[in-house]
Amino acid sequence: MLKKFYKLEETRPRWSKVILLAAYGGLILTTLFFCFIAVLSFNLPDLEKLEKPHYDLPTSVYDRDGNLITEFYTKRRVLISLDQVPKHLIEALLAIEDSRFYYHFGIDPIRIAKAVIVDVASMSFVQGASTLTQQTAKMFLLSSEKKLIRKVKEALLAVKMERRFSKEEILELYLNKTYFGHGAYGIEAAAQGYFSRSARDLTLQEAALLAGLPQAPSRWAPTASIKNALKRRNLVLFMMKSQEFITQDQYEEALNSPIRLKLNRNQPSNEASYYTENIRRYVMDKYGMQKLYEGGLKVYTEMGLSEQIAAQQALKKGLEDHDRRQGFRGAISNLWDETNQTLKSNFYDPAKGRITSKFKKLDPKLQERAMKLYDTKLQEVTSDNRFFIGGKVIGVVEKVGVKEAFVNLGLQTGTISLNGLEWARPVDYATTLNWRSKLRDLRDVLKFGDMVEISIDDYFPLEQAFSLSLFQKPAANGALFSIDPSTGEVRAMSGGYDFRDSEFNRATQSKRQPGSSFKPVLYSLAFQEGYTRVTPLDDTPLVFKDTDWRPGNYSKKYKGQMPLKNALIFSKNIPTIRLTQTLGPKKVIDHARSLGVKADLPDDLTIGLGTASITLKEMVRTYGIFANGGKLIEPRFIRKIIDKKGTILEDYPNYAKTQVLTEDAAFLVTATLREGVLYGTGVRAKALGRPTAGKTGTTNNYTDAWFIGYVPQMLTGVYMGFDDNNKTLGEYETGSRTALPVWLAYMQSAMASRKIIPFKQPTSIQMVKVVPESGMLDCDDHPKGYFEYFAPGTAPSSCHQSEVGFETTSEQKEGNENGDAAEYYEEEL
Questions:
Q1: Is 467 one of the annotated active-site residues of the chain?
Q2: Which of 516, 524, 571, 736 is catalytic?
Q3: Average pLDDT of the chain?
Q4: Sign of the CA dihedral 198, 199, 201, 205?
Q5: Residue 374 near residue 354 (C-beta atoms within 8 A)
Q6: Where are the beta strands (DSSP E) in 437-540?
Q7: What is the model's pLDDT at position 814?
Q8: pLDDT single digits (tens) 772-797
């Protein structure tokens, strides 16, 4: 029987064996495939991640009125619900990405078959078959590696997703996750990034453009290639028409519409950069980098955006004005000088410029080479110029005379006129700018071939030329810090001229000598110790034996006996030193510490003159004590922080305050600084037109210039100086002349809509009529008698009798007649 079986086997055709083996092999392979699928199915990512999807969301920073200031992110994303997405945007996406989206179950066999035919015909992978569901699965749950096993997982996940989620839910996940180029993740971020509007407001042509980007953003994005973007958009429109999503008329109208971008450039170098950088560092230090850039935090700050813009603009203008008073530092370089050095020739002289006679004697070929080299350099340095009124460009001087210079701007030309450029004398920090030192001949500062920075002032169409002026970035720098003294809310902060040039925040990080602006700390101690505003102080020359220190008043004038308030109003150094001597440096240090001063303080008689190095923020915090009735309040940048779930992480509805100075002493300081503005060193601040208190500060050799001033609602400090504190700001660049105008410009803007209110006088303060010559009671109706402020228990009890005393009216009169008492009475160390 067995033999018979084998015999029959031998008689079977050979092809039947092949079929049998193939069947066995197919069965085995099918079994293995389904086992493989089963194993993969058990190891797929959990779809619960899509129930509450994780998005990398930026930290958004808002001002006190809820205006978005900036965002911190690695991936910029703004979430949007599907019901806010316009119908034509969804249709555009389906037309180009997955036209059978509502008819398949996660994978599309018909689409796969078409893709296989196209790929086989072209012998390459030219057409993908992934559905929107598969793409969503990959973005949320899988890596982007191009492996077969990942594609199988993607298909399996897509089928599972279709069973668990509705089509609308899948579309919303896709639209919020996918990358659209230009740093935008999600359709809302893309709409804002390309068109500066919400996705809900996109036009048909704009929607078509964005719908075509996810497949290859680097290729199709309009920021990469307008030509490619237009081609891709038009393809999307064609697909929409083919699938009857739009009519022929709609198609033609959209097809003929140009691409009009309105890019939303979230630049870190705007007017709020120093403030927001302070916020960024705080959030990163407390919550970590991942939370900062991906956590979707909302940070509500105390910044007033309008005040912040005014602060940056005021500081910028003040620094530029100061820089102009010192003169023109010269050209960036000279192209003929560079050409001369390249050719190793001798036709250029640093003092005279290009020497025409020597240039003409050059070999013709060398002369031609020099001209080509010069023209090449000129094109290089002007290639990035962008022409608009008020803009800054690079120009090369082609011809210069006494009153005019002609400048080559590359594609354009322009003229610099001497009129308005009198400031541009050769730089001189030792001589003030006046009619004697002003520029009278442009040839003194410009030469043929000079490369200079230019400001575009105007354009003349007929001549097709620009009116230009010289521009240079200020060499000095500075800071502004502004708070509400009653709450500590930081309304504005600028840490320098330009954040792009230097991120160093001079308001919070730079420690400088405050000079006379520190004196109110000393005088507040005196008031606390029972001194009055009319307590006599000695203003006579002071000599210290066995030392080289020879202190003196800035004005070189001495008044003998003078009331304490005048010593502060007119910033006298000698009475200040004597007061420090009486109170004792250690007591002054202890008092300063109680007022929140944390800086290292000198344990000697110079402490009252402001020789310590202190930040502007610290000084403003201390002045807040004088402004708010004696309470120490820490400056506050942040009001509230909320995470992406809506949980409040930080909330500061109230502010911490500590009474560190008596209300009476704080008022007496304010009253004295108020008079300092009326006729003392801060007289320029009177232009604000409302009750103002303030103090200037200037250090040795005009190295640092300060002004800290306040009204009842706002306190602002300004500092200016070189980052290299060995450099002088220039002759007579005092706190009044240099820093106070910045303060005034900012405060005029910040207080424009605020009510004018007086400083609050404590009910405990007494008003007693005294005679200025002695500070004693006016019992006989003295012709010069006036009412003076006194803290309880400090008013004089004796009547004025002696004809000998001190006189205050003469100095006040002198200040008023001078017209600029701040210039005349400004004190330095």
A1: no
A2: 516
A3: 87
A4: positive
A5: no
A6: 450-460, 465-470, 477-483, 490-494, 536-539
A7: 37
A8: 888 889 888 888 899 999 999 999 98
